[in-house]
């Protein structure tokens, strides 16, 4: 979470969770702030999933508190 001045506040820790509920299907849940640095981590994780043969990829952003432009 960020205050009006753009400073990161407590609770903004970035983390990813993966859920393989069925073969070929992956749900990646994103938590915290999605910014310049964390976007690379997310991108790497998504590319790796496709490289592993995931055919349906869902990105859950419901717990993202901030998305940088």
Topology summary:
Blueprint: E1 15-22, E2 25-34, H1 36-51, E3 56-67
CATH H-level homologous superfamily name: STAS domain
The CATH class turns out to be Alpha Beta
CATH architecture: 2-Layer Sandwich
- What is the first-to-last residue Cα distance? 15 Å
**Structural domain count:** 1
The structural class is alpha+beta
Radius of gyration, taken over Cα atoms and rounded to an integer in Å: 13 Å
Q: What is the count of DSSP helices, taking H or I runs of 4+ residues? A: 1
Give the overall silhouette.
globular
CATH topology description? Transcription Regulator spoIIAA
pLDDT < 50 stretches: 1-11
Can you summarize the main beta sheet? Answer: 3 strands, mixed
Order of helices and strands: EEHE
Percent of residues in β-strands: 35-45%
Lateral arrangement of strands in the main beta sheet:
1-2-3
């Amino acid at each position: 979470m960020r205050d009006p001045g753009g400073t990161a506040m407590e609770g903004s820790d970035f983390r990813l969770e993966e859920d393989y509920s069925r073969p070929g299907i992956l749900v990646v849940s994103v938590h915290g702030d999605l910014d310049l640095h964390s976007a690379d981590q997310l991108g790497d994780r998504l590319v790796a999933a496709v490289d592993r043969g995931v055919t349906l990829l869902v990105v859950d952003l419901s717990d993202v508190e901030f998305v940088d432009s």
